[in-house]
Specification:
By secondary structure, this protein is α+β, with helices and mostly antiparallel strands. 18% of the residues lie in helices and 48% in strands. It is built from one helix and eight strands. The protein is globular.
């Protein structure tokens, strides 16, 4: 019985922490945004399973390295394959008041896609 109450409180705490971020937490436990780079693409983060999906990347190719949840929102550091798939590229993704995806390139440059 004690465990059930603790688990319920933990679940509510997690829900309220995420629900205040940007209004994008859905009942299914995921966050979504649409981004615009050279083409439009969707970004979906599955909160419970810690799975990140981007419609401009192949399935299973994204690795979440770190997630930070604070007053600015949820910041995700991940790697995605570069063109050709042989090299991994770092990305930062922010779900918050601001929404964006920032891609980092091997030559030290980066680009940011704005999202809704």
């Amino acid at each position: 019985m004690h465990c059930m109450n603790v688990c319920r409180m933990f679940g509510l705490t997690v829900f309220f922490c995420f629900s205040g971020v940007s209004g994008h937490v859905l009942a299914a436990g995921h966050m979504e945004m649409q981004c615009k780079g050279s083409k439009s693409y969707d970004v979906i983060y599955e909160v419970k399973s810690n799975v990140l999906k981007m419609s401009n990347q192949s399935a299973g190719s994204i690795k979440v390295l770190k997630v930070q949840n604070d007053s600015d929102g949820i910041l995700i550091w991940a790697t995605v394959p570069a063109i050709g798939g042989n090299v991994k590229r770092d990305v930062l993704i922010l779900f918050g008041k601001e929404k964006w995806v920032k891609y980092f390139f091997g030559n030290g440059s980066n680009t940011t896609d704005k999202c809704d």
